[in-house]
Design goal:
Length: 87
């Protein structure tokens, strides 16, 4: 995971690796915070990741309306739920 401050929020990049023998979908909820009250949340759905492969996604989280964008943002994984294909 990576969090990079931008003018309009924090660009957050996430990557998961499927170590299972079947394809899987991952639900990952994260929060970005500065430790001073600025906190933003998002959920990523990384769908149908083949066995042994990785999948990436990114998004800008938060906004300038929330106050100054953190220059040293911290990423927290609030929930990580893999859903493995049963077939």
């Amino acid at each position: 995971m990576r969090a990079t401050p931008e003018k309009s929020g924090v660009r957050t990049e996430i990557e998961v690796a499927n170590t299972d023998e079947r394809k899987a979908t991952y639900s990952v909820q994260i929060s970005i915070a500065d430790g001073k009250g600025w906190t933003a949340y998002d959920r990523f759905w990384l769908q149908d990741v083949p066995p042994g492969k990785t999948r990436r996604d990114d998004a800008v989280i938060g906004s300038a309306d929330m106050g100054p964008v953190p220059q040293t943002p911290k990423i927290y994984v609030d929930e990580f739920t893999p859903v493995v294909d049963r077939k």
